[in-house]
Every structure is written in C-alpha cells, then in structure tokens.
Design brief:
- With 91 residues, the chain is mostly helical.
- The protein has one domain: Up-down Bundle (Monooxygenase), CATH 1.20.1280.
- It has four helices and no strands.
- It is a multi-pass membrane protein.
- Keywords: Membrane, Transmembrane, Transmembrane helix.
- This is MtN3 and saliva related transmembrane protein.
C-alpha cells in the first residue's frame, strides 16, 4: 500500500518550504557581501544534521528523505560557504 495522497502533499510542501527557507539568507548575504550576522556554529550544526538525515535515508532506503535533505544540505551548505567567504575580520 502506498502513501496516502494527503501525506504526500504535506510531505512535499514541508520539503519545499524547508529547502526554500535558506534562499532569503543566501540572497541577503550575496547582495550585501556580508555574513557577519550569520552564526557559524548554527550552520555547521545544520549542515551536519542534514548530512545525518541523508545517511539515515540511505540506511532505510527512503528516497524522499534522501532527496529533500540533499537539497537542504546544498542550500545550507551555500550559506556556510558564503559565511566563510564574506566573514569580516574577527568573526
């Protein structure tokens, strides 16, 4: 038996919202060329968490978990990379 339609819709919406939630931060950092307000520790933990979710998805062979967390990893990884690129001295 497959996943009910309502569960699929809710899961898809959750994944899309999670993925796109990083976009405003990426745009802000890129436009301002400043990432001093971004917490390095927070994004290191976030990237690590998404990596663990991907590993979990692989272990249980859950492709929606793998795909959505890979996209989130890429977006949060972009914030982390921009943090390193545009950090000010002393951050």
């Amino acid at each position: 038996m497959g996943v009910p339609l309502v569960a699929s819709v809710v899961g898809t919406a959750a994944a899309l919202l999670s993925i796109t939630s990083f976009a405003p931060q990426i745009v802000k950092i890129w436009r301002e060329k400043d990432a001093s307000s971004v917490s390095l520790r927070t994004y290191v933990v976030t990237v690590t968490g998404f990596s663990c979710w991907i590993a979990y998805g692989v272990l249980i062979k859950a492709w929606p978990v793998i795909a959505s967390n890979t996209a989130c990893l890429l977006m949060s990884g972009a914030v982390l990379a921009l943090k390193w690129r545009f950090s000010r001295e002393g951050d």
